[in-house]
Design goal:
Elements lengths: L8 E7 L3 H12 L6 E7 L6 H7 L6 E4 L5 H11 L4 E6 L3 E2 L4 H6 L8 E9 L4 E4 L18 E4 H4 L12 H11 L4 E12 L8 H15 L4 H23 L2 H11 L12
Length: about 270
């Protein structure tokens, strides 16, 4: 490493009854060629093989908790309370960094003025992967500009307030929107940062998530007519998507998605 003053990164993994996925995520983090990081695992009290996986990597895990929680954002807050790094990243079990050089590529540069870092990602569906380019923070009125797995936030900005667990569907969106509305400096990193597992995204709760996002946005400011039309259309689209996932065979759905995302399909082998 060229920089002797590289910042410490806290990577927080939240999991529940997903032992094989947790192992996959831990292996991805441990493979990073970045020397200054800590790994924090927050398990919601799993009754599968999760304790054995944690034990297997106990020499590399800095902190871990296994106990019931109030949901994913409560678990994230528990991890945040343990974080001692300058920057923090949140992973779900099953998510991985794009390759072993992600952290060294991002943090071996001058980031003095940056407060939120974010990059591109890859969505991993059961039979294919698609590339997702991050949007500029000015587009936060539409929703999340990228997945939280591809974001790094200065820990001291969110250490005390953290996520709002009562916003069960949209606490990550509210936190990022809060940072942006408070004038924090967002910096886009033109790199593919993470591969996120779409199985952790419920397509049967899209309408609740869309409505929750709209309520959060309304709480910050009054929407323009254009923005209101956008969100009305998005809620209608979410209703249709939920109906499709409830009524059609998954093989048919994923065949359609593969065709729909055909121009974004990732063909290269897994870099890990």
């Amino acid at each position: 490493m060229m920089n002797s003053n590289i910042p410490k990164i806290s990577v927080i993994i939240v999991t529940l009854n997903a032992a094989p996925d947790l192992q996959k995520t831990l292996e991805s983090i441990i493979r990073q060629d970045y020397p200054n990081m800590e790994i924090i695992v927050i398990d919601g009290g799993s009754n599968d093989g999760t304790p054995q996986v944690i034990g297997k990597f106990k020499d590399r895990i800095n902190h871990w908790i296994s106990e019931p929680d109030q949901g994913i954002y409560d678990a994230m807050n528990k991890g945040l309370a343990k974080a001692t790094g300058e920057w923090v990243n949140f992973m779900n079990a099953g998510d991985v960094f794009y390759d072993r050089h992600v952290l060294s590529t991002i943090f071996n540069q001058d980031l003095e003025d940056a407060q939120v870092l974010y990059g591109d990602s890859i969505a991993h569906y059961p039979a294919f992967k698609t590339w997702r380019k991050a949007l500029p923070p000015e587009d936060l009125w539409k929703g999340m500009v990228c997945c939280h797995q591809a974001m790094f936030v200065r820990t001291n900005l969110i250490k005390h307030e953290g996520f709002k667990p009562d916003l069960f569907f949209s606490a990550d969106y509210e936190l990022i929107l809060r940072l942006y509305r408070n004038g924090k400096n967002f910096r886009y990193i033109p790199e593919t940062v993470a591969v996120f597992d779409t199985r952790g995204t419920s397509n049967l709760k899209m309408v609740k998530s869309a409505r929750s996002n709209l309520e959060i946005l309304n709480s910050y400011r009054m929407l323009t007519p254009k923005e209101k039309r956008f969100h009305r259309r998005f809620i209608c689209q979410s209703k249709l998507t939920e109906w499709i996932y409830r009524c059609l065979p998954s093989t048919l759905i994923f065949s359609f998605l593969k065709w729909f995302y055909r121009n974004q399909i990732v063909h290269e082998a897994n870099h890990l």
